[in-house]
Each structure stands twice: as structure tokens, then as C-alpha cells.
Specification:
Elements (H helix, E strand, L loop, with lengths): L1 H6 L2 H56 L3 H9 L7 E8 L4 E6 L15 E3 L3 E10 L2 E11 L1 H53 L13 H46 L9 H18 L3 E8 L2 H8 L1 H18 L5 E6 L2 E7 L3 H15 L3 E3 L2 E3 L3 E8 L6 H17 L5 E3 L4 H15 L8 E10 L5 E12 L3 E3 L1 H10 L3 H21 L6 E5 L2 H4 L3 H12 L7 E6 H6 L1 H14 L2 E7 L6 H6 L4 E4 L1 H4 L6 H16 L3 E4 L5 H9 L4 E2 L10 H22 L1
Parallel strand pairs: 11-12, 14-16, 16-17, 17-18, 18-19, 19-20, 20-21
Antiparallel strand pairs: 1-2, 1-5, 3-4, 4-5, 6-8, 6-11, 7-8, 9-10, 13-14, 13-21, 14-15
Helix pairs in contact: 2-3, 2-4, 7-8, 10-11, 13-15
Length: 694
């Protein structure tokens, strides 16, 4: 029932409510009125019958006094004309019937209780009327009246009431339908408006309801609500438009970040591979070739570490701009990461790829001006050709990478095409990289010491520490092979730290065996020199083994301070302040000037072996060596000549006043024990010579 009521519309609920109220009200009123009317009719019937009994009582009063039964019966027979009276009796006060009357002879009736004046049953009315003389009861008149007239009156009245009730209900229904329309029409109008607004989302519409009642105020409030919703909708739409614009921008940015390098704005690896695969499909379909140029900047790590990442980033941007200026329409220049770039050339022959590589190398020959720095850059380029060197993106990239490493072996600024036999060399190099990372922890490195002989006294107190690597599976590996690899993979600084620690420990061991004052020269790479931890490493090991700082000499190549003079001077000043000696290795191969030599806190110059090789027969070499020695001495520096391999070379160097010499003619690199024996031997010889001369 409740669910059914809830399912009805307000219109039908109002009709039902109003009709029900009218029905209940009319029913209650009719019931009350019916009870009153029926009671009135019954009382009227009783009064009427009582009046008849009173008339009879007056007539039979003397008959009762004289016990005149006949007179009493005659009086009662007059009632036969009264259709309502069914029976009558005159009763003495002792309850004996003096006379009676029955409308039908077979009618039986019992005398009711004489103390009850009237009694109405469902079929008849009994009335007892007292007959008294001078306030003394002498008898009673009993009348029984049927209720046909009363029933007829009540039926007529009931029918009238029912008719009135039905008419009233009908009128109430009609009125409820009419009046509910006054209420529901505005509501239905509001509902239609709301439905229309929900369907069209047009919040600019307003309810047109002119009324001062609650519905009017509701419509006014709803219009205010629509205005607020419209304003809010406008704000949300504006905000949504801005948000959508932001989403579109962010989507574009995310797409850009996913496909382009953030620094150089070149395509990244992901976009390169996508374009490379498309180019492969196109080349396969059209039976064309394509070339993949793999570029790696030479010595980029040194520049990045020494001049800072800001300069390194500017350099990468400049390289990207340079490569983009060379790119043809339809080709792709991408940055893979770090200092690695890829140039994708479509529909080309190998000779076309070679010309592009030569043009790139030529472009790099011009110096780059970055933040008050002039940088001389070069690049190594590896080239793979589709389909000759691979038929998918991974093979072409791998083979171009392999050929790039072979180009690096030729020196800065070279390019190299891929060849099948390069894979073996690539595997060897990869194996070397993996084993090199564990060489320190596996104790596979060891040091040998090449003595530096003092030409003036013949003593041996100095040596250059040279690292060696012996791997269980690869055997002895030359420093010329693994040092460049260590620099490329960023492992050279760890090797440098190991050499410093090992050399300091060895000096301490020699001291413990009675050999004092040994000076060991250690080669320091450019990246290690730029590392702030180098000074800490030197200080920590010297103090741990309780050595003198003057027993350590670091060697740096000439091109290091030429390329990174400002930072190098600052670092070398700190190292020199500790008391560590500093030597310039391979002197004469760079572009040194007196200004650099005056600025640098240098103790020793090491003349490159290329000038010593033919010094005994080449006047130009003799002039260079002689002038270099004079220059060193004029600046207060010691001169060490490397790669002395003949007696003639040694004699010339002694004659020109060179301070120290080292080379195979004198000593090969020695183990620590052999070097200790040489020190003892030469010390003993010098002591003997002094004793003999004395």
C-alpha cells in the first residue's frame, strides 16, 4: 500500500487526499446525523404509541375500577383500525389481564416487565402505560406496535443520506480535481522546466510563475538557484576550458618529453628508433640503402668535469645546432644520451655517408666559444649501412656503435665503416670493460717502477710508478689498451686512487727495510685532476703511512693544463701547497708557452721520447732537446728525459746537462724488490766511489 501511494503523482495524491477527507468527514457527519435522526424517530414512535396508550387508559379507567371486562374489550377493539397496533391489553395492578386485543388470533405475546415503560426490539415496540387514580396505580395499558412505519422512514432517510453522500463525494472529487489543478499546474510547469533544463543544460531559462504564495516564492527561489547554477556553470566551463587547455599543453609537453631530448631538443632514442624502423621499411620497399652515423664527442668527460656541467650542457647544445645545420630534409639527428649522437641518412650510398661524416668532422675543426672558454672539439664517428650491416634497428645501432669505437682507436676526429670482424674486437672490449670494473677488488692490478737515474751523481732515488693488469682469463693486458677504456667508462679515477694508495704503501715498506728518501712519480689523468677527492686521497695516504709529501710526485700531460688552465692551476696550487712535487709529462708535444710554465707550480719537465729517439743524429732534435733543458733550468725546473735506449742518447743528454734520465737502456720497469736492490746497489757504488776518491 505504501509503495503504491509513493508511486502516485502529487496530482493523484491531492485528489485522493481531498476525496478521502471529504468522504471521512461526510461519513462521520452522516453517521452522527443518522444516529440522532433514528433516535428521534424512535422517540417519536414511542411518544405516539404512549399517547395512544394514554387515550385507552382514560377510557378503561372506570372499567378497571368496576372490573368491567366487557367495556375494556370494547375499548381495545377500537384499535383494529390502527394498522400499527398489533396487540393490546388492559392489565390489573396485580398483573392479571382484564382484557386484550390481537390483530390476528394466532398471535401470541407475553406480558413484558410492567416496570419498563417502553421497549423497542428489531420487529416491534412495546409500551406500558400506568393507570392511576389519585396517585394510586390501579392498572396498566399495554400496546405492541409494529415498526413498519419506522423502518420505512429509516429506509427513506438512509437512501436520502446515501444519495446526499454520493453527491457530496462526487462534488468533493470534482472540486478536488479542480483545486488540485490550481496547485499542481505550477508544479507540473516547474517539473517540465526542470526536465527541459536537465536535457538541454540551458541554465539561462527562468520559471514564469507570477504568484505571491509559497509556489511563487518557490519559483523565485528556483530562479535564484538557476542563476547561481548558471554562474557556477559558467565558472566551471571557463575553468574546464582552462583545464583542458592545460591538459592539452601538458599532453603536448609529455609527448615532447617522451620523444625529444630536453637539453638539445633533438629526437631522443625512442623517436629515433621509431623513425629508423620507418626508414628501414621504406628502404626495404624501395630497395634503397640508409646509413646510421654514431657520433661520440672526444674528451667530453674531461671538459664536463673540469669546466662544469653548465659548460658541458652548452657544448652539447652547440653540437646539436651544428649537426642540425648539416641535416638534410628527411634525415634525423638524435641524441641518445650523454655525448652520443646519431645521424640517420635515408636513401644514400656508403660514399654519401662518408661525405657527411667528413663534413661533420670538418665542422668540428672550428673552435667553439662557450662562456669565456675556447674549446677545440672533435668527434669519432661509426657508420653502419642498411641492409649490408644489419636489417633491424638494434643491429644497425650496435654495429654503428662498434665501428665508432674503432674510429676512436685511430685518434680524435676519425670515422670508420662497420666490418664483420669488428664484432670480435667489440666482444673483447666489452669483456675487458666488465673485468676492469672488478680488477681493483680482485687485486689484479700491480705496480712496476722504472728508475730515473740522476746523471750528475748516478744515484737512483726516483722512479715512475707504472700500472700493470694481469687477469686470470685474459692474461696480461697493456695499459695502452685498458687505460683508454677506463677513461671512457669513468673508472680511471678509482684506478688513480689505487695507484696512489699502493705507491704510498710501497714507499713505507721500503722505509721499513732501511731505504729512505725514495720519490715516486704517479701519472694522474685529467678527470682525476678535476676530482675534488684527489687532494683528500693524497693527504689521507701520505699521513696514514707517515710519509713526506715531497716523496710523491704527480705527472700530468701538457695538454691537460693547456685545455683547463684555470681549474688546473687552482688544483695544482693546493697540491703543491701540501709539498707534493709536480711534473709535466710529454713536454714539447703540446703548445706550451713561458706564460703557462711561469703560472704553473711545476717542479719538473719530462721531455717526450719522440725528441730523444734521433737526438744522436738529428740536429733539429738536438736543438729542441738542448733548448728545452736550458729553458727548464732558467725557470728553476728539473728536466727528465724519457725513452733513453742507446748510449749515444745518454751521452748527449749528459753533455747538455739533463738532470734525470729513464729508459730501457738503463732500466726496464722493475718490481718493488728489484727496484730496492737497484737503490742499494747504486748507493753502495756511489759510496765506494767517494771512498776511493777520498
Amino acid at each position: 500500500m505504501k509503495r503504491w501511494l509513493n508511486s502516485l503523482s502529487i496530482r493523484y495524491k491531492l485528489i485522493l487526499l481531498m476525496t478521502t477527507i471529504c468522504l471521512v468527514t461526510l461519513s462521520v457527519a452522516t453517521s452522527i446525523f443518522s444516529v440522532i435522526q433514528i433516535t428521534s424517530l424512535k422517540e417519536s414512535a414511542i411518544d405516539n404509541t404512549t399517547a395512544k396508550a394514554a387515550l385507552i387508559a382514560t377510557s378503561v379507567e372506570s372499567a378497571i375500577l368496576f372490573n368491567d371486562e366487557r367495556t375494556a374489550e370494547n375499548t381495545l377493539r377500537r384499535l383494529k383500525n390502527d394498522v400499527a397496533i398489533e396487540a393490546a391489553a388492559v392489565i390489573l395492578k396485580d398483573g392479571i389481564i382484564l382484557a386484550d386485543y390481537r390483530k390476528t388470533n394466532n398471535m401470541n405475546f407475553a406480558i413484558p416487565d410492567l416496570n419498563q415503560s417502553s421497549n423497542i426490539s428489531s420487529k416491534h415496540l412495546d409500551v406500558i402505560y400506568e393507570i392511576s387514580v389519585q396517585s394510586e396505580i390501579i392498572g396498566y395499558v399495554y400496546l405492541r406496535s409494529n415498526l413498519e412505519k419506522l423502518d420505512a422512514q429509516m429506509l427513506s432517510y438512509a437512501l436520502a443520506l446515501i444519495a446526499v453522500l454520493l453527491v457530496s463525494i462526487t462534488v468533493a472529487y470534482v472540486l478536488s480535481v479542480y483545486f488540485q489543478g490550481l496547485f499542481t499546474r505550477p508544479i507540473k510547469s516547474m517539473v517540465r522546466y526542470i526536465d527541459n533544463i536537465c536535457q538541454t543544460s540551458d541554465y539561462g531559462k527562468r520559471l514564469q510563475l507570477e504568484s505571491d504564495d509559497e509556489l511563487g516564492r518557490l519559483a523565485l527561489g528556483f530562479n535564484h538557484l538557476l542563476a547561481a547554477v548558471q554562474d557556477r556553470e559558467s565558472e566551471l566551463k571557463s575553468h574546464g576550458d582552462k583545464l583542458q587547455q592545460l591538459v592539452d599543453i601538458r599532453t603536448q609537453q609529455l609527448h615532447y618529453k617522451a620523444h625529444y631530448d630536453a637539453l638539445t631538443e633533438l629526437p631522443n632514442r625512442h623517436l629515433l628508433l621509431d623513425r629508423l624502423n620507418q626508414a628501414i621499411e621504406s628502404a626495404h620497399r624501395e630497395q634503397k640503402k640508409l646509413a646510421l652515423l654514431f657520433l661520440d664527442l672526444d674528451r667530453f668527460k674531461i671538459i664536463n668535469d673540469s669546466l662544469g656541467h653548465a659548460v658541458g650542457d652548452q657544448l652539447l647544445k652547440s653540437v646539436a645546432w651544428l649537426l642540425e645545420s648539416i641535416r638534410r630534409e628527411g634525415d634525423t639527428v638524435a641524441r641518445l644520451g650523454g655525448d652520443e649522437f646519431v645521424f640517420l641518412l635515408q636513401h644514400v650510398e656508403p660514399e654519401d655517408a662518408a661525405r657527411v661524416a667528413e663534413r661533420i668532422i670538418q665542422q668540428f675543426s672550428a673552435p667553439l666559444h662557450l662562456e669565456n672558454h675556447v674549446l677545440h672539439m672533435s668527434t669519432s664517428i661509426g657508420i653502419s649501412i642498411y641492409p649490408d650491416d644489419g636489417d633491424d634497428d638494434q643491429a644497425l645501432l650496435k654495429n654503428a656503435d662498434v665501428s665508432m669505437y674503432h674510429a676512436k682507436q685511430k685518434g680524435p676526429g676519425h670515422y670508420c665503416f662497420y666490418r664483420n670482424e669488428m664484432n670480435n674486437a667489440s666482444f673483447y672490449r666489452l669483456n675487458m670493460e666488465n673485468k676492469l670494473r672488478n680488477a681493483c677488488s680482485a687485486n689484479e692490478f700491480y705496480l712496476v717502477y722504472q728508475p730515473q737515474v740522476c746523471l750528475k751523481s748516478g744515484s737512483v732515488k726516483r722512479a715512475e710508478a707504472l700500472i700493470r693488469w694481469r687477469n686470470p682469463s685474459m692474461g696480461d693486458i697493456s695499459p695502452a689498451e685498458f687505460i683508454p677504456v677506463a677513461e671512457e667508462i669513468g673508472f680511471i679515477n678509482q684506478i688513480g686512487d689505487w695507484v696512489i694508495a699502493t705507491a704510498c704503501k710501497q714507499i713505507s715498506d721500503w722505509r721499513s727495510s732501511g731505504i729512505e728518501g725514495v720519490v715516486i712519480s704517479i701519472n694522474i689523468s685529467a678527470s682525476h685532476l678535476m676530482d675534488e677527492s684527489l687532494i683528500q686521497c693524497i693527504r689521507q695516504n701520505v699521513e696514514f703511512y707517515q710519509l713526506g709529501y715531497q716523496q710523491i710526485e704527480i705527472e700530468i700531460t701538457e695538454d691537460v693544463f693547456l685545455r683547463h688552465s684555470e681549474h688546473v692551476i687552482e688544483t695544482l696550487d693546493k697540491i703543491r701547497a701540501l709539498g707534493v712535487e709536480i711534473a709535466i709529462d710529454d713536454f714539447g708535444t703540446g703548445y706550451s708557452s713561458l706564460r703557462y710554465l711561469q703560472q704553473f707550480p711545476v717542479n719538473t719537465l719530462k721531455l717526450d721520447g719522440m725528441f730523444i729517439a734521433d737526438v744522436d743524429c738529428n740536429s733539429s732534435s738536438q736543438g729542441i732537446v738542448s733548448s728545452s733543458i736550458l729553458l727548464a733550468h732558467s725557470l728553476g725546473l728539473a728536466m727528465v728525459a724519457e725513452c733513453v735506449e742507446t748510449k749515444a742518447q745518454l751521452d748527449f743528454l749528459r753533455k747538455t746537462g739533463c738532470d734525470f734520465v729513464q729508459g730501457y737502456y738503463l732500466y726496464h720497469p722493475l718490481s718493488a724488490d728489484d727496484f730496492a736492490n737497484i737503490i742499494k746497489k747504486t748507493t753502495k757504488q756511489i759510496a765506494g766511489q767517494k771512498g776511493a776518491s777520498a
